Amino acid sequence: MHRRIPLSAALALVLAAGGVTACGHVDGEPITPTARATADFPNIGYADWTDQEPDYRFYPGDELEVTVPSAAELNKSVVVQPDGRVALPLIGPVMAADRSIGELEAAITQAYSTQLLRPQVQVSIKSTAPLKVFVGGEVGNPGVYDMAGDGDALRAVIQAGGFRSSSKRSSVVIIRRGPNGRAMLRTADLLSGMTNSRADLVPLRRFDIVYVPRSGVSEAGLFMQQYFRDLLPISFSYAINGFSGN
Q1: pLDDT tens digits, residue range 62-78?
Q2: Where a domain ends, among 127, 148, 167?
Q3: Tens digits of residue pLDDT in 164-199
Q4: For the chain, what percentages of helix, strand and coil (3-state, to nearest 5) are there?
Q5: Could you list the residue range(s) of the whole structural domain that residue 216 is in?
Q6: Tally of domains within the chain
Q7: Where are the alpha helices (DSSP H) in the chain?
């Protein structure tokens, strides 16, 4: 499933422009973005890349199994709704989006404690919504894509119409939300990935950005200048449509 939108708008949904001081690297060299810098709008930097796998956080479309061992009649399969909440018996809707399993179990347990004596709630994942990623730069059809199952950067580029002849396939940029919401950046050699089964194809996570630069230009600086120059500082979070509260 593909919805075509300007990449600059897609970036504004997920990138933070403030509070990040460390820089990423391209081909082993540090990147210092060329965005407009003032006292109120500092240059954008990137945290060092880490492959640490964070706890899964729920997203609209995920299907969950909620179990209350002390009250089996309350056991229920629920789907996270577009507003991020799940509807459960006896209690009002509970916010599930952007919460881990443990956080959601604690929230539902607290909600049921007004109705039950010492409830213990268990939450498990039945199915997850498609992986949503942003693909831009020198690809056939830049935009936002849903990827079923596990996805990697090469598959995302292929789904976005493949590489243009003007692309630099050996230095594809991957941007991801890292620990504490900080943006991380790395590059991947997808040119070798097309011929070498052991190449680093970079498994993707929800809301990753895959940017294919142009060949023969200073792609890192051009990318930062073109897409970040006029973006306002915003929070890098997975809060969708203003998810908040319980």
Answers
A1: 999 999 999 999 999 99
A2: 127
A3: 999 999 999 999 988 777 788 999 999 887 676 667
A4: 20, 25, 55
A5: 2-54+130-228
A6: 2
A7: 7-14, 101-112, 153-159, 190-193, 219-228
